Amino acid sequence: MGRLRADAERSMRAIMAAAEDVLSASPVATMEQIAEAAGVARATVHRRFASREALIEAMEVTAWQEILDAVHAARPHTAPPLVALHQATAGILQIKPAWHFTLARQIPLSTRAQAVQAEVMGVCEEVFAKLLGPGADIVWARQVYLALLGEAAHGGALLGEAAHGGTPPGQDADAVAKKVIDTLMHGVQRTA
Length: 192
Prior knowledge:
- The radius of gyration is 18 Å and the shape is elongated.
- The chain has 9 helices and no strands.
- Helices cover 69% and strands 0% of the residues.
- α2 (31-38) packs across α3 and α7 (138-154) packs antiparallel against α9 (173-186).
- The protein starts with a helix and ends in a 6-residue tail after the last helix.
- It has 2 domains: 1-49, Arc Repressor Mutant, subunit A (Orthogonal Bundle); 56-186, Tetracycline Repressor, domain 2.
- By secondary structure, it is an all-alpha fold.
- It has helices at 2-25, 31-38, 42-48, 52-73, 81-95, 111-132, 138-154, 160-163, 173-186.
């Protein structure tokens, strides 16, 4: 029974990864195209996911759960706020490029994914409150941080360089995380 569940889990992950690639290229792609990209029969996709929407919802829950796991791994409640922010940022930068299509929505489809997203945002705001102190506009800080994070993950800092012979995706997440946090905390300054 354990092997069957492990095989089913691998199959679901392969389908979700293929769906991410296919839907990133063509948001109107069919379940048949996703099945073909995953190397499985269309019936297998439908056995795992009742509909295209169910597949996307599962992708959203999985992506947001991976981000939440990275946030919790940064020990936001016990580590110094700047350390937790850096570790969470580096972890998220390694996750986000694999879920570009899925995480592009401001509000996920499913209430379950929305709940996980809300938990991520809540922890983010707690860290910013500790880091920036009383009187800071925490919601604005979170919005700016998320914009920087999105640009770093999808705007070329981790993706485009590999295509141009630079650092492969995810390899330099710590350096990119440092840039994101330095920009957030100090703006764009000329450094010596």
